[in-house]
Amino acid sequence: MKQQVLFRNLSVMEYGEAWRFQEALLNETTALKIEAAKKGEVADTQHHLLFCEHPPVYTLGKSGKEAHVLISKEELAKRNIGYYQTNRGGDITFHGPGQIVGYPIIDLEKFYTDIGKYLRALEEVIILTLAHYGIKGDRSPGETGVWIDPEIKMKARKICAMGVRCSRWVTMHGFALNVNTDLGYFTSIVPCGIVDKQVTSLEKELGKQIDIEEVEQEIRNNFERVFDCQIIYSVEG
User: Fold this and answer.
1) How many domains does the chain have?
2) DSSP secondary structure letter of residue 188
3) Which domain holds residue 201?
4) Whole-number mean pLDDT of the chain?
5) pLDDT, mean of residues 192-209
């Protein structure tokens, strides 16, 4: 029987609120695993996939450098841009309107216990989604995420950033795909700490606004395909 993943669209949600929501789901899942392990049983855990859009915010991963934020805290406040130091992997990135942010809270022990394989699977979900729009997404060796033309100097551009956290093989955080994102926000940071590559979006690549709900459906379809799971929909949305 395929693993079932409960999908919920959180719509527009402030980053800190979404982070707390993820943490609550992760803590609930790990608590079930701890109690089951005490009894020598396998926990009846629930997988989750959350989609949302954040108001403008910069987030810094555990391996990131604050120097990669190129504007002052005063300027951030003036421009009404949030800022968080997070517990995910990776460096600095931007979240904002026109971007699909996906947060899988997955018990990897029911799939495989390999973080590298998990990240490659998330990348594959996005690569397949881009292919639907005639775009060849690719991987850049040593750099997590999805790129276009990563092997061509001065043309390489990132379209999807990724960073995750894992506790007792339960994941949180995830990916951010630029659909109709205002790429101007990326000029105030060193995106993902990488100085010699650009950032792009579906809108920029295709020269037109993209139906974001259609992209979300493509991601869900490809998530089911790559993870060989079944997505079920929360009655809460």
Assistant:
1) 1
2) G
3) 3-233
4) 93
5) 85
Name the nearest CA neighbour of 76 among 52, 101, 58.
58
Cα 229 to chain centroid, rounded? 18
Band of residue 68 on the pLDDT scale cut at 50, 70, 90: confident
Do residues 231 and 49 touch, judged by C-beta distance below 8 A?
Answer: yes
CA 4 to chain centre: 20
Q: Which residues are catalytic?
A: 192
Per-residue pLDDT at 191: 66
Burial of 96 (0-12, 13-18, 19+ CB in 10 A): buried
CATH number at residue 46: 3.30.930.10
Q: Buried b / exposed e across 45-64, counting CB within 10 Å, b at 16+? A: bbbbbbbbbbebbbbbbeeb
Give the predicted TM-score (pTM) of the model.
0.95
Q: What is the pLDDT of residue 133?
A: 98
